[in-house]
Amino acid sequence: MAGQLGERTVSHAYQAVGWNRQKRVYDLTLLAGVVGYLALFVGVGAMLSPRATVETLIIRAFGTAALLLLHVVLSIGPLARLDRRFLPLLYNRRHLGVALFVLGLVHGGFSILQFHALGVVNPLLSVLTSNGSWSELAGLPFQPLGLAALAILFLMAATSHDFWLANLTPPVWKGLHMLVYVAYGLLVLHVGLGVLQAETHALLAGLLALGFAWIVAIHLIAGRRERAADRELQGAVAEDGFVEACRVGDIAEKRARIVCLSGERIAIFRYDGKISAVSNVCQHQNGPLGEGRIIDGCITCPWHGFQYDPADGASPPPFTESVPTFRVRLDGDRVLVHPHPQRPGTRVDPAALQEES
Amino acid sequence: MAGGDEFYIGYQRQAPAGLSRFQRWTVAALLLAAAVVAVALAALQSDFDPGVFEFGVVRDFAGVVHERPHPLLLVDRPGHNLPEPSRFLLVAAGKHGADGEVAGLDGRRVRLRGTLIHRQGQTMVEVVAGSVEPTGDATARPAAGAVDLGVQTLRGEIVDSKCYLGVMKPGRGKPHRACATLCIRGGIPPVLRVETGSGEYRHFLLTDEAGGVINHRLLDLIAVPVEIAGRVLRTGDLLVLEIDPTTIRRLDAAAGSS
Ligand code: FES
Question: Which residues of B touch A89 (CB under 8 A)?
Fold first, then answer.
């Protein structure tokens, strides 16, 4: 978790963060949701099929709960990009990830106990070797796929702490956590090649397909929006290389406007009669700084609240993160930005607005 | 970017009112959706097979042991007025046959303790390890010979009799294939399940043409639709299908590749 200094400043520092009320509410809601789901599934299943075995109901309840939760986890990112009111869900998304892993672990553990233990072969070896053949589609082994997905979820859950984010470096960490999409693909196959080969109600396959279509669709839509925002700014280029980015009036006080110059997203902030520009990419998890706002004089990332001084892009001490800055100047009410980034943490004089607003 | 002007960072104690409201609705919608999915998925499961595993209940049994092809206990059932004793398949705990439990006791009257597994007239006992005790030398009554029902061609699915008769549900089909394969590898009697129409099933214990064990020659053919031709024998209430495993034909897409 991000640390806190005083009331507000947040950056990498791994002291325990107080479990504030929001976080407790978040986790309690999550717990209630998961327990409620499991109870409903097992309860309704046992009621409708008195002959059902409880192991099967448990395996299925945990497996389906995990898959459902994975859809939620994968939806939050694109939804938050489409409507920032979803952002608070993003803040503790890693808790969802850990819950997801635990659900998957119970599902997998129970399945291995039931289907692979007490035999003549080592259970794990059995998972990998004893179901089906690789030479035909419907016969493809599905259990190794589930195991691989569980391994990915484990890696992600185990490295979800910011300690690992800092020590693996953000690009590596980000790459590792992009594997969640691989896990999702594996699980769709795991279900399609596994239980759906026996449970043939069309609605079951339909629900899986619907979930898949939803995930693909919101990612495409959010991606399209982002690409539109990324369209290279076509502003007039001044002789000194500065590019016209926007008008002062385009930027709300304590907010930013994001522009794309030389392939980079730049956040131009307006605050206290000044204009500053920094890279739009938060050092924590690439959150969009330009969608944040100035709080207590600092640019505050909308995702997890890391903070940066707008003039030099550096987190207030004792934190050490910093983002590249950009030179800005004003021409009347036109804001011009130089597309060449300054090294992270380089102080750039803010452009001062003439008439105070 | 939609979303109004309110701004909230996760570590703040309290989100702005508008955001809070939005969050509450989102979360309520999510929980409702989860409940609907839970009920729908639970309800859409296909009906569970019949079959009972009296897990945790240990009973006493007495009868005559047959070691081959798979361990059997021939049990007199006085109340049933049957011409022949019933044949209970014997298995050990987990995914293991009971061969070790009854070794050397072929034809002897024994007492044993175990847990019942039964499904529609087929009965099996999971023998408590070490509980088999001979109680006499000779069989009380020599078992009648097998009745030859001729060569038949049957279509069905090879299952492991233990899970299928009630230990697991489903105890057949692809999700259970790994387990069935492991069981049959471990010596659980393999059985061909054949639909006889209108939801009725018959079950045939599979042996080779000399009445010997063929578990290890079936491992690639479990839990897939197959067609098998072989001689059907009836001994008491047990049907045995004597086959040449190399002639088993797969009926699914992989028919050519096996
Ligand atoms: S604070 Fe996490 S991405 Fe910016």
Answer: 23, 26
